[in-house]
């Protein structure tokens, strides 16, 4: 879901109705499986803490985009290009703070698609 891990058992997400619903559903599944889970909406954070969380989340997505971009190099099968496109959409869905690598990853996949068509 694109959460920033605070501790091994605690994570934080930006607030949206959709993410709240997904998080509550996940907590219910954990409890049904015998575990413990809580969803605790936080309305305010100190500016410094919020900046740190945003930086962590952006960094994690940036790393994912870089990995995807590296995989897009060379001659790829149609199946591999489709997998990269799927991976890209998955990262974008979790990129709550628009990491800088999004555009570069999209361009690398587009180039891989063009190279594939040229074969």
| Structural Rg | 18 Å
Strands, total number: 2
Instruction: Describe the largest sheet.
Output: 2 strands, antiparallel
* N to C succession of SSEs: EEHHHH
Oligomer: single chain
Overall morphology: elongated
Mean pLDDT: 93
Summarize the amount of helix as a percent range.
Answer: 55-70%
N-to-C span: 36 Å
Helix/strand/pairing class, anyone? mainly alpha
Count of folded domains? 2
The total count of helices amounts to: 4
What is the beta-strand fraction?
5-15%
User: Spans with pLDDT under 50 lasting ≥5 residues?
Assistant: none
Provide an overview of this structure:
With 119 residues, the chain is mainly alpha-helical. The chain has helices at residues 17-32, 47-71, 78-94, 101-118, and strands spanning 4-7, 10-12. It has two domains: 1-43, no CATH class; 46-119. The chain contains four helices and two strands, in the order E-E-H-H-H-H. Strands 1-2 form a two-stranded antiparallel ribbon. Helix 2 runs antiparallel to helix 3 (78-94), helix 2 packs parallel to helix 4 (101-118) and helix 3 (78-94) packs antiparallel against helix 4. The radius of gyration is 18 Å and the shape is elongated. The termini are far apart. The model has no long low-confidence stretch (mean pLDDT 93).
Keywords for this entry:
single chain, 119 residues, mainly alpha, 2 domains, two-stranded antiparallel sheet, 64% helix
């Amino acid at each position: 879901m694109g959460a920033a891990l605070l501790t091994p058992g605690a994570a934080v997400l930006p607030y949206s109705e959709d993410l709240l619903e997904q998080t509550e559903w996940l907590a219910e599944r954990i409890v049904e499986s015998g575990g413990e889970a809580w969803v605790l909406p936080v309305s305010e954070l100190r500016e410094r803490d919020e900046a740190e969380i945003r930086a962590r989340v952006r960094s994690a997505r940036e790393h994912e985009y870089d990995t995807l971009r590296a995989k897009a190099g060379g001659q790829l099968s149609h199946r591999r290009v489709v997998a990269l496109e799927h991976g890209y959409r998955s990262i974008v869905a979790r990129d709550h703070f628009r990491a800088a690598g999004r555009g570069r990853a999209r361009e690398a996949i587009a180039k891989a698609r063009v190279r594939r068509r040229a074969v």
